[in-house]
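Appendix B, example 12.
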Amino acid sequence: MEKNGKVTHSISNSIATISFQHPKSNALPSRMLKEITNLINKLAEDNQARVIIIRSEGEKNFCAGASFDELLQIKDYKEGKEFFMGFARLINAMRKCPKFIIARVQGKAVGGGVGIAASADYTLASNEASVRLSELALGIGPFVVGPAIERKIGKTAFITMSIDAEWHDAFWAKQNGLYTKVFANNHDLDEAVAALAKKISTCSPEAISEMKKVFWEGTDNWNDLLEQRAEISGRLVLSGFTKNYIKAFKDK
């Protein structure tokens, strides 16, 4: 694994794959968030890509969400808001993309990682893919990813995840609508992702684009909504509570 993490992409047989990795449990610092967002926006306009797969490397963790190292470095409200706008821009890019996005979730997903899983149009996972919204424990709250997660699993399940901040297994995530299917191992997961992507790649791009609009009806205000949520997180991340929690977590 590269020390600072990396984002790669490829296109083969009309299937685009975006892959990311970071040594800290596939956390997403601002640089990588921006790279993934830019790729989705680019692929949205690329006629060679008819479907997009988003995935991460390794087996244990899909995505640990925000980079704790970067959170500790935030010095003021402007920096805080801008950090969380990275997740806001990624979610909005996935929402607006006229192509179906498949999320391959092979391991644990936390915070922003759950947001990515929820923002995909079709999410397939392994039985190791537990989910957790740990933001409240560190003094923030899942504000930016909240709308995407609530849209997928409903308000009651979102409230449960937000308040208890505990792990919920892959079958709980499937039962509540975050995952479409759960597989016994990564081999079966990969075969299912490949088969679905191949099927979608032969469908009408115009029909898919229109279906995306239908699927995301009622989200036209998300540019403003997610920015407002980033402002809340950007303010809270400066609190002593959050700084102390992150330092204690890193010192374990």
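The domain at 6-201 is CATH 3.90.226.10 (2-enoyl-CoA Hydratase; Chain A, domain 1). The radius of gyration is 17 Å.
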